[in-house]
């Protein structure tokens, strides 16, 4: 592979002009996966559990099919071809959508307030998708960025400021390594990635730019799969990010840094879109999923049946957290900057639920069981203190005859059962055959139910 002088100059420039003072006792990470993978994940990420993902770009203008609209058009998807034929003149190009991406109703303060109300602890905004349009005034994306074309403003900067001024959420950025139709990328691709002009002149400069300008606590990489990590110079960038960037102590990254890295290398693993294995994982992972079950981007043609229910969303949260993951909940934003009311409703509903049940979510750790051995739709988390271990039981469906039988927990004579948000203890009996526990749910008037959708039991002083 040919590495140009420009790369070494770029790396040196980043170290000299944008580095933070390195503490004497701070470990220095080498540009190898062995070294990069040895970095401990900052504690805030595992404790956070809940994040919001935002897909937004020029693709939000047609808002048809999904964020891969341009690619689908170029590869002659019949539905997209028919859509363009019916609605746009013959010579219309994808670039023409750029001037229609106006973000005229973009209110970053309102968005920050919604995400805070949702109970999220971090937000990841699309800085650039595979179309190449940057939602910030990038010096490396001339006339294809949010200041030169369309909104005439710094979309990334506005949300970053609102998140930091109005909430205690961590701010993060999604960034696509590749661009479908950039001439330099296509040239490198035609050269079997033995040249890396696109990496040196576009991808790496953008990454240094967003890190130094916006100081994100999450760098969510994507678009890596066509080329090896050596082409992207991923380990060199990550070594700088961990050693000398302005977010070296707090930043977390995912696992999409080139061929072979997915689910193998990086900070936390995403493994695939909407990854939710349902069993405990050895490595920290994240379930990035969508409120619109059919799309990452906003779709004007979406119907109510396409949107996940609040019951389904809470079930996704419970199963993810139980197995040691974080959940990154995606909403597509309209081209005018608004979040769709149905997405806002789901997020606020989740926040209402978390106000009652967040004790079982935030800073929790997996228990020895994730599912129950007898009853379905049960998930467990736990917390350990100096004095005791508490086990939390996510009950997704109210039990028939108000009796919940659990096989995993083994009660002791002093076991205490309560429901988060409810004032009184529950009666229980040791289950005769399994050695588990039968929990008696009392009659609770609807006005006194702590939650409308799912309920969390707190078990203390178990034998196991």
TrEMBL record:
Domain Alpha-L-fucosidase C-terminal per the UniProt entry, residue ranges:
370-460
**Stored InterPro entries:** FUC_metazoa-typ, Fucosidase_C, GH, Glyco_hydro_29, Glyco_hydro_29_CS, Glyco_hydro_29_N, Glyco_hydro_b
Which Gene3D superfamilies does the protein's record reference? Glycosidases (3.20.20.80), Golgi alpha-mannosidase II (2.60.40.1180)
Which GO terms of type biological process are on file? fucose metabolic process; glycoside catabolic process
Q: Where is this site: May be important for catalysis?
A: 288
Task: Tell me which positions the record assigns to the signal sequence.
Answer: 1-22
* EC number(s) per entry: 3.2.1.51
Q: Which GO terms describe its molecular function?
A: alpha-L-fucosidase activity
Asked whether the UniProt record includes Nucleotidyltransferase among its keywords, one would answer no
Q: Which PROSITE patterns match?
A: ALPHA_L_FUCOSIDASE
Q: From what superkingdom does this record's organism come?
A: Eukaryota
Can you quote a single GO CC term?
A: lysosome
Q: Which reaction does it catalyse?
A: a neolactoside IV(2)-alpha-Fuc-nLc4Cer(d18:1(4E)) + H2O = a neolactoside nLc4Cer(d18:1(4E)) + L-fucose; a neolactoside IV(2)-alpha-Fuc-nLc4Cer(d18:0) + H2O = a neolactoside nLc4Cer(d18:0) + L-fucose
Q: Which UniProt keywords apply?
A: Glycoprotein, Glycosidase, Hydrolase, Signal
* Entry annotated with the keyword Cell division: no
The record's listing under Pfam families reads:
Alpha_L_fucos, Fucosidase_C
Under the heading PANTHER family, the entry gives:
ALPHA-L-FUCOSIDASE, ALPHA-L-FUCOSIDASE-RELATED
What does the annotation say about its assembly with partners? Homotetramer.
The task this protein performs is described as:
Alpha-L-fucosidase is responsible for hydrolyzing the alpha-1,6-linked fucose joined to the reducing-end N-acetylglucosamine of the carbohydrate moieties of glycoproteins.
> This chain belongs to which protein, by name?
alpha-L-fucosidase
